[in-house]
Amino acid sequence: MQIRISFTTLICLLVLAITVASAIALNIGLADIEVINGLQDFFNGEQSLAANVVGQIRLPRLILAVVIGATLGMSGAAMQGLLRNPLADPGVLGVSSGAAFGAICTLYFGIAASAWYWLPGAAILGALFTLFMVYVLAGLHSSMLALILAGTAMSSIMVALIAVTLNFAPSLYAMQEIVFWMLGSLANRHFDHVSIALPLAVISWLMMLSRSRFLDALSLGEDSARSLGFNNHRERGILLLGISIGVGACVAVSGAIGFIGLVIPHLLRPFVGYRPGRLMVASALGGALLLVLADILVRQFDSARELKIGVVTSLIGAPFFLFLILKTRSRWA
Amino acid sequence: MMTTTLSAQQVSFTRDGNSILANADLTLSAGELVGLIGPNGAGKSSLLRMMAGLQQPDSGQIYLTSQHDQQQLLNDFSGRERAQLLAYLPQQETPAWPLHVEHLVGLGRAPWHKPMSGKSSRDKQAIEHALNITELQPLRQRIVTTLSGGELQRTLLARVFAGEPHIILADEPIAALDPYHQLHVMELLAEHAQQGGAVLAALHDLSLAARFCSRLVLLHHGKIIADGQPIDVLTTENLEQVYGISAYVDCRDDGVVIIPRKRVL
């Protein structure tokens, strides 16, 4: 499957689709308001119902959907390029489990409720701690295989620790809170969440995008990349740190949203001629689009029992991924 | 004129208690196509990797002398500077993704890329030149995973040429190719040497090595047994001692012909 479309056209189409989806996302909701007026009022600092609904509820939610979708999509593309494997996802080194465990600790001990920044802060620390431990276990100059093994081990440990916190949850309410949080959601997020996720996401994007040449060269293998002048350990370290910061920031504000990092790069790869560097840009846009669309879908349902966005992405992602594998298995066999 | 020289001096390497290389000395000068020969496990790949700067020897030094400079340790070059002078073609390189031929060839320009800029006109020229000399122009839009083994090897070689290196280190570049493609690849490497570059290639086909190489280096158990003109290296004694074969060696006007006859116990 090789699709002939210029990179610029693809990027323009994706940006256009995101713009349309964003406009729809801002226009739907329970309150019947004028979105344009609301936005104007919000940016002019005027208080009105429309300004509050759009500025405090819909806009942060939309921004988070774009930022998180983009980060997860790009991280997935980066990780697949780094591992030279289309089945890798950003969580393969255990960073998302680590972030989830950090966040769950604050829910478990009840400190998440005391200030909004406890949970995201703990999640990012959890992600960075996991990456640090992976490097400690595998060694700084280890092979990629050693890193994956250490990552799998750390991931298992973190999942086990999450199970422990669930097992000993102080109350049913705390347990429900943890489980719901793990499903992933964009509901009830405000600009404080944007202010923590956006800067970290931008840092992670820059770190990943600056390594796109390395990922291209890595298509030829580790030895060839090194012989082309790249310092593989350094490049890999920067990429993994970027992925960890990005994924940590995403998990921190939205919980675990699965499958975007796996499906989106896989879906877009033929459109960019399988070039890993360009795939990162395309996947960021694709991820943002998917998450905005998923959020629109989520908001169509009964708000009393919120459908979690992580559930939707998994529900769409898993069968779709299966379909892709069946369709392309002859080529990867 | 390119006058880059690469030399390994007293290089030794041990892994898990096995001596892979022992005090190997090898100098590769401009204009040479040197064949690195020896049985499987003789240490050819390790020596190539060390001379490419991919593996540190336990002892000994690798020096790279570029055009106007003094002899310099290979380790003192930055990865980028080294890659501009020296290219390495691994044994059986398999692309991870089904890239287009022209994109794969373009990857060879990596040492010349400046940050935050696209392909320069020089990049484009070098890629076109590499596609031309490897006769890949008709295949440039093809996807590399659909190529035959010979076409793929030519693509990978074009990737090396696209980087415009002075020195090419190639690990078994003609293994698993049909005679036509074997000759094609050897001709391309010989041409690179004739134009002032230098090539060190690990080879198993002794007749082709003798036919194309200006010099052969015979490696056995990590030691260099012989280094010189093909005719002086490929003696029946050396073949018996190193490869454990008795062979028919015939020197003719158009080169040396070697036909292995039987194993010597």
Descriptive account of the structure:
The complex is a heterodimer of chains A (333) and B (265). Chain A is mainly alpha-helical. Chain A contains 14 helices and no strands. The model of chain A has no long low-confidence stretch (mean pLDDT 89). Chain B is α/β, with parallel strands linked by helices and 265 residues long. Chain B has one domain (5-95, 165-263): P-loop containing nucleotide triphosphate hydrolases (Rossmann fold), CATH 3.40.50. Chain B has nine helices and twelve strands. In chain B, the strands form three sheets. Chain B has a six-stranded mixed β-sheet with strand order 6-7-8-3-9-10, sandwiched between helices. In chain B, strands 2-1-4-5 form a four-stranded antiparallel β-sheet, covered by helices on one side. Chain B has a two-stranded antiparallel sheet with strand order 11-12. In chain B, α6 (179-194) links the parallel β7 (167-171) and β8. In chain B, α4 runs antiparallel to α5. The radius of gyration of chain B is 19 Å and the shape is globular. In chain B, 45% of the residues are buried. The chains are: A mainly alpha (333), B alpha/beta (265).
CATH top level of chain A?
A: Mainly Alpha
Strand content of chain B: 25-35%
Architecture of chain A, CATH level 2? Orthogonal Bundle
Number of strands of chain A: 0
Whole-number mean pLDDT of chain A: 89
The CATH topology of chain B is Rossmann fold
Can you write the helix and strand succession of chain A as a string? HHHHHHHHHHHHHH
Query: How many distinct beta strands of chain B?
Result: 12
Oligomer: heterodimer
Low-confidence stretches of chain A: none
* General form of chain B: globular
Radius of gyration of chain B: 19 Å
Helicity of chain A, as a percent range: over 70%
What's the tally of helices of chain A?
A: 14
Structural class of chain B: alpha/beta
Please tell me the total number of domains of chain A. Answer: 1
Report the portion of residues of chain A in β strands: under 5%
Going by CATH, what is the homologous superfamily of chain B? Answer: P-loop containing nucleotide triphosphate hydrolases
> What is the ordering of alpha helices and beta strands of chain B?
EEEHEEHEHHHEHEHEEHHEE
